[in-house]
């Protein structure tokens, strides 16, 4: 009888172990007393072609603007996200420090040493409230805060159990203020879990982008697609590597001028996680 119970116990343990290797509880969150050293490597190729009223086209040429205009850029941003102790209210402080920014334009968009302050709670994305940086206007600081807060919405995935081979999709709405125009974008991301090895979940991901402007004066429509990979740390509930190659086309026009935009870009974001 004891041998039978032992045998059944071993079988049950094996089944539980097999299950743990083929499924896990997916949730992306910042944990207390943890340091996240992150690097974001971005490349961009943009082509803009003007067409329309000959007089306006001549003015564009007179200003020395190439038609089409081609712009290539490359930037690397190194930063560290640090979280503090969990309080009795179940929240913890968060700081984001920009360590180093390099780009192909040799321009410092965000000065080294810039620090953003915020607060996190277990199971939710952090909320940012202030920024300290020398040489930046208050308006630009506000834009940085809004941009960084928006990135949390983009990486957030509602908690769910995922099995190897499973495919699921999420829609993420995003509003982008640009030159007095509100651009409304929807990002549809499809995930496929390929495998789980050494507590690292390997996903194939694809995206579809749709965008439109909120004004009839300069109507804009855009669409695009993306393909990439995601490596997720099951133990630390965080992305170790996110890689995406994107293509997008857009059209903006009014009664006299039309602008066609083609964009190809890539992003590789990595993280090193350690306890503080």
Would you write up a description of this structure?
This protein has about 280 residues and is of the alpha+beta class. About 15% of the residues lie in helices and about 60% in strands. It is built from 3 helices and 13 strands. It has an 11-stranded antiparallel sheet with strand order 6-5-4-3-2-13-12-11-10-9-8. Strands 1-7 form a two-stranded antiparallel ribbon. About 10% of the residues are buried. Residues about 5-20 have low confidence and may be disordered.
Helix and strand composition category: alpha+beta
What's the CATH architecture?
Roll
Strand content: over 45%
- Give the uncertain stretches in residue-range form: 5-20
Fraction in helix: 10-25%
**Helix tally?**
3
Give the strand tally.
Answer: 13
The CATH C-level class name: Mainly Beta
Largest sheet: 11 strands, antiparallel
Keywords: Signal
Signal peptide: 1-18
Write the layout of secondary structure elements.
Elements: H1 2-22, E1 23-26, E2 34-52, H2 54-62, E3 69-83, E4 91-103, E5 115-121, E6 124-132, H3 138-155, E7 160-163, E8 167-178, E9 181-197, E10 200-213, E11 220-233, E12 238-253, E13 257-275
Signal peptide: 1-18
Keywords: Signal
